[in-house]
Amino acid sequence: MTTVHGGPGDSDTSHVTYRNISLMNLLGRVYPDSFRVEGPGWLDMQRYDVVATMPAETTADQFRIMLRNLLAERFGLKAHHETRDLPAYDLVIAKGGLKLKEAAADTGTAPGAASGPLQLDADGFPQLTRPGMTTMNTIVNGVPVARLTARAQPIWRIVGMLRAAVQKPVIDKTGLTGKYDFTLEYAPGGAMAVASPSSQGNPPEAEVGAPGIAYAIKSLGLALQDTKATLDVLVVDSANKVPTEN
Q1: Which of 31, 127, 186, 194 has the fewest CB atoms within 10 Å, counting from its CB?
Q2: Tell me, what's the pLDDT at 112?
């Protein structure tokens, strides 16, 4: 398990500790505007511990620059950026109209505040009483199902899930700026995205019997459409598998 503690926005802003982190993971954090990182396979396999200090007032942008310098000095990292036209999806409002429910002005307890144990509905799924998201995997009618429950969440939270599921860029074209309450049921694990989410007709179902998340979003009045996007790719030219230590 990779763990991260400290840094800008954390309770400890003068220290940061990464445990069991890959260089690929670190590069994704320090180059957030790059859609993906390309390089030798060990970038995602070899694991490291990184412990660093910084001025307490360091901003997020300054922090990323510091980490880039660390990777160049300790790993001898050399990389360049390339702009590529890549297959992607536009997230749009489906033809039947939006089915998302906008959250009420009173969203309950602030995020992170104590509010007692989660309340469960009749099916045993969590009911949120404060802004946030939670996912529970269970068995429904003999098949695995994941139910995501969200309260007062922006559309970019859905975009992030879809990007991970379809392994392609997902571009928000909905124009939605509010925060929404919703639930979403889909096939968990590797069956999250099956076939092409923009194919016509009734979507095929995953082997486990539940729709992939790319189809499940249709219940929210959302859909994915094929497109292309011009994106930045970080290409690692060289790096040392064994870094220079203190």
Answers
A1: 127
A2: 42
CA distance 210 to 192: 9
Q: How far apart are CA 185 and CA 211, in angstroms?
A: 8
What are the C-alpha distances in Å from 183 to residues 9, 86, 122, 205? 29, 31, 14, 19
Query: Measured between alpha carbons, how far is 148 from 125 in angstroms, rounded to an integer?
Result: 9
Residue 111's SS3 state is coil
Is 139 within 8 Å of 125 (Cβ atoms)? Answer: no
Q: Which residues pair with 119 in a beta bridge?
A: 127
Indicate the domain borders of the chain: 3-76, 88-230
pLDDT > 80? residue 70: yes
Residue whose entry in the numeric block shows the structure tokens 């590797």? 190
Which whole number is the average pLDDT over 198-213?
53
C-beta of residue 38 within 8 angstroms of C-beta of residue 236:
yes
Model confidence at 176: pLDDT above 60: yes
| Start-to-end CA span in the chain (Å) | 24
More confident residue, 114 or 99: 99
Strand (E) or helix (H) holding 97: none
Rounded to whole angstroms, the Cα distance separating 154 from 166 reads 20
| C-alpha closest to that of 14 among 61, 51, 50 | 51
User: Tokens in use for 153?
Assistant: 């969440």
